[in-house]
Each structure stands twice: as structure tokens, then as C-alpha cells.
Amino acid sequence: MATIRTPEVETFGPLVPRGPMAPPRPGPGTAAKRLGVLPVPPLEWNKDVERETAHLYERVQAVVPPVEWPFFAPYVKAINEAKKTRNAVILAHNYQTPEIYNCVADFVGDSLQLAREATKTKAGIIVQAGVHFMAETSKLLNPDKVVLIPDLRAGCSLASSITGEDVRLLRERFPGVPIVTYVNTSADVKAESDICCTSSNAVQVVESFGVDKVIVLPDEYLARWVATQTNVKIIAWKGHCEVHERFTAEELRKYRESDPNVQILAHPECPPDVIAEADFTGSTSAMIRFVKERRPKKVVMVTECSMADNVQVETPGVEFVRPCNLCPHMKRITLPKILDSLVYLREEVEIDPAIAERARRAVERMIHLKS
Ligand code: 13P
Ligand code: SF4
Fold it and tell me: Which of 91, 190, 215, 361 is least enclosed, having the fewest CB within 10 Å?
């Protein structure tokens, strides 16, 4: 169990909890008009499909039952062909299901890695297998490319917890105090902030200002975790991740009681008492690195459910205890919707240019920060 300081953190937030944001409106569909739609591929399961996708099934067989593969395989084949026809890449977050993560994604990673990858790709079209704020970040970094999200309703409870207006009010209340926003926010919120951060670089970003007080928005628990890692005073917002806030310290204690040698890894979006019970805290990629490098016998990943499946594929022999908290937004992305995106070029992500310019500055500052 980790020993952590409990510094004081000042928190702000709406007096009445806000519901989810309305999904963004679909873009104008200009890409489909310019580039046309593709013929809908045949999606039957036959010997050819079985043979052509056998190498991919081998990769996921530990986590995808044989009875499910005949449904996935025709989509996997069709998506991989459509990507070539479209000169498209799929950027997939670590929380995507194993058949997306292992069989159709070109790049996988945490939010920071996906943002970095978005700056490098030569493809003309990016399909974001993740949630809307991730697709917006890719669009900010690639204003001239077509960026698609297979389901516009793939939101995030953290992004819904704060608006650009909230950030402007905080700036008025704390003049001169730098504002760091988590990438899990809308472009509107990013535009009002000085720099973005992700869970893998939040401490470094906060310390980059060299001042004694910084505002960190909107994840209260990430902000509280950062405060335990630095002497900088943190002002936080009362936003929470609906997946990580459900874990409890009691649940973690039970895992440890049942096997004192189990390694417990927690994401910094978890509540502080949960993090206090963990052996390691880090971003999704930091957790994956921990398992790959240290090969613990038994591990609990206190984060979204699909992570354990994806890490298991690459680390046979490690036993995963599986608390299964699903992110309903990440799970809106499916193979049929990814294929639909590539065929019809929808849903196109668009950002108001006046907002995009300021939001891009905040993301680029983070990306260019020397590590
Ligand atoms: P990571 O940047 O650690 O992948 O986290 C993104 C996220 O949404 C976690 O809930
Ligand atoms: Fe947002 Fe939490 Fe889902 Fe990540 S897991 S996308 S923070 S709701």
C-alpha cells in the first residue's frame, strides 16, 4: 500500500450536479460529398474470411471466445480494407474492446500517446476509436484532415462537468493563477486554459510554471493526486469520472485480504482513499508498462474493464483479477460503427475556428513540454 501526503486542496464546482452534455451536432458532411461513399462490403462469415483473419484471431483468442469471432471477423476484414482505400488510420484508446484494440487499430495508447500520434500521421483521415474529447484533440492538431468519431454520443462525465464560462469565472476569481485543464474537456474549456495535461504528465505540467499555486480542472481526484506529488498548492474543480469514482477502498482491501501478494494498480481518476490502498498509481499506459516490465503473478487494474483484456493479450501468465467497471461512452464504439464511419465518412468532428485556435495552443504547449 502506498504512503501518501494529504495536502489541502481548495475545490470549486456547480452547486447542483450537471447532467451529461447534449451530444455535439453532426458536422456538415463535406468529406462524404468530396470523397464519396464506399460500396457496403459483404459481411458474411466464410472460409476465405476465416483464413484471412486467422492471424488476428490468434492474437485475441485468450479474450475473445471462438463463438464470437464469426461475428467480428467480417467487420475486421472490411475495416482493414476500407482503411487502405480511404488512406485512413484508426487511433484507439486503451479502453477499447480487444477486437478493436488488437485487430483494426493502427495506434493504441493513453490520451497523451494518441494526441502525439495524431501530430505524426500522414493519413488523410483519422478515425478515433475513443471518446469525443479525444477526437476533438486530434482535430485540433490536424485542422486540415478529416477526423471521424463513430458515435457522437461517446462523451465523458469529466468533459460534461465544466464549461468555458466556468473557467472564465475561475480566472476572474484567481487572477494570475495558471489554469491547467485535463484533456478530458471540450475545446471550449481548453480554449480558456493556459495548458492541457493528461494523467501521465499532470505533475510535470503543474510544476512547469514554477509558481506556488495552480488551478487544475476538472477532475477533483486527479487534482488531489497531483497535490500529493508536488509542493504546488492546487485549486480543483468537483468533476469526477463516472467509472473510477465507483471503486471503493473496501473493495481493494478485500482483494488484498484474499491474496496479500496481489499487485493493485489504480488510475489517478480514482478517489483518494482508493489510491491510498493501491501499490501503484498511473495513467493507463503507465499501468500497462508496470505489468509488462514487472510481470506480477496476480494483478488488479483499478480502471476501465477492457484494459485487463488488452494487457492480458500481451502478458500471458499474469493472472488478472477483474473488477468490471465499463465506460458507457467508450463502449459506444463498435466494429459496425467504425466500418460505417469509413464507408460514409461520419461523424465528422468540427470545431469553431475561433475556439480551435486558442484550444490548439493549450494542447500544443502540453505536447511540446520537454520531459
Ligand atoms: P489515460 O490518459 O490514462 O489513458 O486516461 C484517459 C481516460 O479517459 C481515463 O478514464
Ligand atoms: Fe471519461 Fe471516465 Fe469514460 Fe475516461 S473512463 S472517458 S474519464 S467517463
Answer: 361
